[in-house]
């Protein structure tokens, strides 16, 4: 399947082209403003589907709204009609298409042109009236407040907020691309050739809430912490935020706490799911020798040989577990059992550690009780 993408160098176009290039059943023909009418004609002659993304939303000359958004769309339809091509078309319109502003009007004219084309040739047409789209590769200080805020936050610049209560409607770029690809693979089957599909999920928030969230990402990163970024809007916003980090910030130095036993390094702290660390121990060194009332820990030996010992505080029952990094195991500390770890090998012991709580020096829930 050969898919022509107009506006292939734009924000949505780049994301779509990269995703489609990973699909062996699809060949991408990428077009941008540098291509001539002749090249456009040849591309459309080969096309099995068209994704029309080319457009402007902040031109220096307001007449470009009509020339590009409406005029170029008319040129596409004229060429397709001349070739008698009734291929499926996906059009990235805007939620502003029903608003009374130059950009919205030009998008609505483009929709009308495409609808007329689809009805005349019997072509399938999907018009996506997209709200604000955000994600990697959007251009800061252009058409995405998310991109602008992320770019500024990752560079230590202030976020300019004119109205913190201004509402925002957003969709994430990956969800937009998923919707496009789904239609390319499974075209619409409907009595109507013209459809207005929705991208889901759609997120509603204010400019102030957006700014606060992005600023929290910057603060958390400085403290070796993370927000709850595993799902939904926070997942999408965090992925967008880190995509604007300058290469010099791709790495972070971690604080190393060293003593004669070895090293201890905190890696990441979470809001409510504990923290991740690692520690080392020289041959013959024992670490730990304490118990917890509530805190639990998970240990994984990634280098060396270790002996884990446990003793129940009340019954005195004892347990010993020997661990070789060549046979990975997860060892869990149990509340009410004092425990320690000894390096019984000839080389440095390295152990990854997850604790169910972020360490709080005012309430550490760690009481010394050696097993000797």
Describe it.
This protein has 372 residues and is α/β, with parallel strands linked by helices. Helix content is 30%, strand content 29%. The chain has two domains: 2-133 and 170-203, Rossmann fold (3-Layer(aba) Sandwich), CATH 3.40.50; 256-368, Sandwich (Jelly Rolls). Helix 5 (145-154) packs parallel to helix 7. The termini are far apart. The chain is elongated and about 90 Å long. It contains eight helices and 20 strands. The strands form four sheets. The chain has a six-stranded parallel sheet with strand order 2-1-3-4-5-8, sandwiched between helices.
Task: Describe the secondary structure blueprint for this structure.
Layout (H helix, E strand, L loop, with lengths): L1 E5 L4 H11 L5 E4 L6 H10 L2 E4 L10 H20 L6 E6 L7 H20 L3 E6 L1 E3 L10 H10 L12 E6 H13 L8 E2 L7 E4 H16 L9 H12 L12 E4 L2 E8 L5 E7 L4 E6 L5 E7 L1 E8 L5 E7 L5 E4 L3 E7 L5 E7 L11 E2 L4
Parallel strand pairs: 1-2, 1-3, 3-4, 4-5, 5-8, 6-7
Antiparallel strand pairs: 7-9, 10-11, 11-12, 12-19, 13-18, 13-20, 14-17, 14-19, 15-16, 15-18
Helix pairs in contact: 1-6, 3-4, 5-7, 5-8
Summarize the structure.
The chain is of the alpha/beta class. It is built from eight helices and 20 strands. Strands 2-1-3-4-5-8 form a six-stranded parallel beta sheet, sandwiched between helices. A six-stranded antiparallel beta sheet has the order 10-11-12-19-14-17, with no helix packed on it. Strands 16-15-18-13-20 form a five-stranded antiparallel beta sheet, with no helix packed on it.
């Amino acid at each position: 399947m050969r898919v022509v993408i107009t506006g292939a160098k734009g924000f949505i176009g780049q994301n779509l082209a990269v995703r489609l290039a990973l699909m062996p059943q699809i060949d991408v023909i990428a077009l941008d403003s540098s291509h001539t009418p002749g090249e456009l004609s040849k591309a459309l002659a080969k096309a099995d589907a068209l994704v029309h993304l080319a457009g402007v939303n902040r031109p220096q000359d307001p007449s470009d709204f009509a020339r590009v958004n409406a005029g170029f769309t008319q040129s596409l339809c004229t060429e397709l009609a001349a070739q008698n091509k009734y291929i499926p078309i996906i059009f990235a319109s805007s939620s502003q298409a029903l608003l009374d502003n130059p950009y919205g009007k030009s998008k609505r004219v483009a929709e009308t042109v495409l609808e007329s084309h689809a009805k005349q040739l019997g072509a399938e047409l999907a018009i996506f009236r997209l709200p604000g789209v955000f994600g990697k590769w959007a251009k800061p200080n252009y058409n995405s407040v998310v991109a602008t805020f992320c770019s500024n936050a990752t560079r230590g610049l202030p976020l300019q907020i004119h109205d913190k209560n201004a509402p925002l409607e957003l969709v994430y770029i990956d969800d937009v691309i998923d919707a496009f690809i789904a239609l390319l693979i499974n075209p619409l089957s409907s009595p109507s050739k013209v459809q207005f599909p929705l991208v889901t999920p759609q997120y509603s928030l204010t400019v102030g809430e957006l700014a606060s969230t992005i600023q929290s990402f910057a603060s958390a990163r400085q403290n070796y912490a993370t927000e709850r970024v595993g799902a939904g809007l926070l997942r999408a916003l965090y992925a967008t935020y880190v995509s604007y980090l300058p290469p010099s910030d791709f790495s972070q130095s971690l604080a190393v706490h060293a003593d004669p036993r070895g090293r201890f390094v905190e890696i990441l702290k979470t809001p409510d799911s504990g923290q991740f660390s690692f520690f080392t121990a020289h041959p013959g060194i024992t670490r730990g020798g304490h118990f917890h009332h509530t805190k639990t820990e998970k240990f994984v030996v990634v280098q060396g040989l270790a002996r884990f010992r446990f003793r129940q505080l009340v019954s005195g029952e004892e347990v010993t577990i020997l661990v070789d990094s060549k046979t990975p195991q997860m060892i869990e500390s149990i509340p009410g059992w004092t425990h320690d770890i000894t390096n019984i090998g000839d080389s440095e012991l390295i152990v990854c550690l997850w604790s169910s709580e972020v360490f709080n020096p005012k309430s550490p829930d760690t009481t010394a009780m050696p097993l000797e």
